Amino acid sequence: MSEVEEQGRKPSEELEESTEDSEEEDSEEEPKLKYERLANGVTEILQNDAASCMTVHDKFLALGTHFGKVFLLDIQGNVTQKYEISSVKINQISLDDSGEHVGICSEDGKVQVFGLYTREGFHENFDCPIKVVALHPQFSKSNNKQFVTGGNKLLLYERNWLNRWKMSTLHEGEGTITNIKWRANLIAWANNVGVKIYDISSKQRITNVLRDNTTLRPDMYPCSLCWKDNAILIIGWGSSVKICVVKERDPTEMRDLPSRYVEIVSAFETEFFISGLAPLADQLVTLYYVQENSDHMEEEFRARPRLDIIQPLPESCEEISSDALTVRNFQENECRDYKLEHSEGESLFYIISPKDIVVAKERDQDDHVDWLLEKKKYEEALMAAEISFKNVKRHDVQKIGMAYINHLVEKGDYDTAARKCQKVLGKNMDLWENEVYRFKTIGQLKAISQYLPRGDLRLRPAIYEMILHEFLKTDYEGFATLIREWPGELYNNMTIVQAVTDHLKNDPTNSILLTTLAELYTYDQRYDRALEIYLRLRHKDVYQLIHKHNLFSSIDDKIVLLMDFDKEKAVDMLLDNEDKISTDRVVDELKDRPKLLHVYLHKLFKRDHHKGQKYHERQISLYAEYDRPNLLPFLRDSTHCPLEKALEICQQRHFVEENSRMGNCRRALQMIMEELGDVDKAIEFAKEQDDAELWEDLISYSIDKPPFITGLLNNIGTHVDPILLIHRIKEGMEIPNLRDSLVKILQDYNLQILLREGCKKILVADSLSLLQKMNRTQMRGVRVDEENICESCHVTILPSDTAQPFSVVVFHCRHMFHKECLPSSGTIPGGQYCNICSAKRRGPGSGILEMKK
């Protein structure tokens, strides 16, 4: 809740939003309104007099006092004009919409209506106090010279065409009239009984809204009236609020009823007594008179008035905000001493009390930012100022950002503070340098380093060098990261190189510093030094460096080092750049490293079978030693390889497969049997070659070796007739597992017999099926018509005159001939055949159909 402090304040500082207790001070809910006292001339007036009423116009204010004076004030409270109307209290001041005419009534019965800029006027003294006066909203127009007064009666004054005022009584007999509000053609007034509405156009009273709490004195708790628009009237009386809507009656329902009627759309009770009402969009601003119970006294005491914003509902209301106002002398004021006036154009609300006038207005974007800053919500304040920068007048976005950065630094959140510098400081290099030095002072240069400008706008080189030196002292990895991320133009490269060199004297093997030094050398175009470091470190970027800067002339003597580091990448690079590093040079460098030499020559051979042809003989032994699976493909694809040398090496190394593939199958089989003694492998080899001579060699070699005979008996049945082997076995020779081997041979033979019988049955069935199909096909008729032609003379097969006898021969191959176009059957032994198909064997097309007529 907001308070208005009274003492020790200058006029511009008189209003301060505070809370009633410590709990409310900690509230995070932002107030909806802001307050300030109406000062200047008003302060002096209220020191010697007291405010009794006030009317608000968009251009000026009209203030009435208890001593019968009326002051016209500007919006700031300066007096522009003074009228001495009476010696007693001014009860009401009314202005028309144009602000050119004013109506005034006082406690002694005086009523004055006059123009502020003309001499025309109305002056009348009544014999009773006149509580209210209201001018027609369009009073300045000649046809609307009307006003009403309220005392014991509601009187309407109209100026006729003779320029005289005509009076008529609209209502009387229900006590004193305490309030009147005129809007368009509708006059609403309140008396002791309730609220009435009169339609000036139809001259009919259209409603009577009764007062709810009749125990309250109407003079002590007066009715508050307010038109929201031309059809909605808001009534506040005691602690009840009613919202009434004036509607047009359906013509079919009129009869003797008024053309309009009133519907109450909302009615609810409030916690306190109402002193004033005003609309705010679809909400209500209510001024409450508050009485509270003291903890030490049984009697109630007068508390500070409250200004609430509420959301009306059909039978209740929702409180949006609530502010307690410390107006001057609030302890002495009663409910009738407070009034609420509002300016529709600017959403200004004036709280009037005898000794104080407070202006409430909706908070703007500047006020919102103020509140956020006060609550130390700097990030939200910065965001709000950026989003609504056109509406922010009193605040500077950059200053708010600086306050946010200061706040983060005070909290110790240095990373966030540094990140915000990018957004807040922008292109202001002076502010950037100040922040860098501040972060240096608090030992947080690392935090701000990654956010420094590094594009077209940049700081002095000394700033970047200072940060690099700081990282070099404490964080080698962070230093290396900055060197990679920062463009070299930001700092003096030689200065940093020297600093890194000095640190390497104490730690010469530090890989991070060496890598960073290589990067610095690269940027400084000293590629040879960078290459030395990369090779020393076996760094992955060495190949990229060589390619990018064409350093092939520098790696002639470093080929072995490159191969040791990554032979695949090294070989690819050497082969891609043969014009810069010759094959002979590479082979010479790798002559003492045969395995690496093999990798290089193998990839060279894969790319081109002829480029390294003079090294093919050497490659045979390299393949045999390091890559036997690729030996055979090499021997097959190479046309420059001496086969005698290859055969010699294969025999020396007992490479059976290679021997066989080179055509020396008998030698390969001999190596398997004699050197390996592996009968299963020998049998498998013989099966692969499927050569009768090899089987004979295998049987001859095995005939005196019982284990070999057993192996042959178990596997030979499907490739060679087992009888050949059995006949050659010497009598009396003991052969392991002979019975099992013979049983297996018999089983294999039975299986072969069964397979042959099955195949024979399938063959016979298929032959019969195909024969039947051929027979059905040949038995079908063949259509012959005018479209068919003789395949020999190419004339239509049927004559034009079918009455004449003719002969046509149709073969089963669907070729047709005139009989006379075929050779005589006597010239072809065995019958006639289709000339077109005669080159083929006798088959389905050899049959003949003869058509005669």
From TrEMBL:
GO terms for biological process: cellular response to starvation; endosomal vesicle fusion; macroautophagy; protein targeting to vacuole. Residues 790-838 form the RING-type domain. CDD domains: RING-H2_Vps41. Residues 14-29 have a biased composition (Acidic residues). Signal peptide: none annotated. One of its GO terms (cellular component) is cytosol. GO terms for molecular function: zinc ion binding. The keyword Zinc-finger applies. Residues 1-33 are annotated as: Disordered. InterPro entries: Beta-prop_Vps41 (IPR057780), Clathrin_H-chain/VPS_repeat (IPR000547), TPR-like_helical_dom_sf (IPR011990), Vps41 (IPR016902), Vps41/Vps8 (IPR045111), WD40/YVTN_repeat-like_dom_sf (IPR015943), WD40_repeat_dom_sf (IPR036322), Znf_RING (IPR001841). Pfam families: Beta-prop_Vps41, TPR_Vps41, zf-RING_Vps41. Belongs to the VPS41 family. It is a peripheral membrane protein. CHCR repeats lie at residues 571-711. The keyword Hydrolase does not apply. Keywords: Autophagy, Cytoplasm, Cytoplasmic vesicle, Endosome, Golgi apparatus, Lysosome, Membrane, Metal-binding, Protein transport, Transport, Zinc, Zinc-finger. It comes from Electrophorus voltai. Residues 1-13 have a biased composition (Basic and acidic residues). Plays a role in vesicle-mediated protein trafficking to lysosomal compartments including the endocytic membrane transport pathways. It is found in: Cytoplasm, Cytosol; Early endosome membrane; Endosome membrane; Late endosome membrane. This is Vacuolar protein sorting-associated protein 41 homolog.
